[in-house]
Amino acid sequence: MYSPPIPTGPSMNIRHAEEADLAEIQSIYAHHVLTGTGTFEEVPPSVEEMTARFRHGSGRGWAWLVATDATGVLGFAYYAQFRDRSAYRHAAENSVYVRQDVRGQGVGKLLVAQLIEEAQARGFRQMIAVIGDSENAGSIGVHSSLGFRIVGTLHAVGVKFGRWLDVVFMQRTLGPGDSDVPD
What we know:
The protein is an alpha+beta fold. It is built from four helices and eight strands, in the order ββααβββαβαββ. It starts with 5 loop residues before the first strand and ends in a 10-residue tail after the last strand.
């Protein structure tokens, strides 16, 4: 499904990701895997594995977005159904990763804002952010600024870089939320 780019400034656009973007997406994610605690993966997935993940999600109609400028992919974000069981079919989980040299410049916020719109248009009623590391102030701040609220913290459930890590759950209502029960 083609979607025209969303202009976000004089030099940056947000658009649906394409397979041609996956090498840059994999590179951004690999950096986060190897240096950060926002993901609990410890071995970067290959381009082939990222391609499989992309095909699985986009094949189910879930959005994968990229922010781009003249230098290439600045960041990417996607959502998927929160859990595989059918009862979760109206709850989405988002993920967002930004290239190291442009972090803190609003790229992640623009990507998540567009994901919210896309998920809402697909009939999702809740969006959940599962944030690795309770010290991840950047991601917690981005999500808070977009209306997510902290709904729980799992303490010391992961170990990475020789230390225990928490997971913060944040949630945001989409559209009518739980005001009625969809089909």
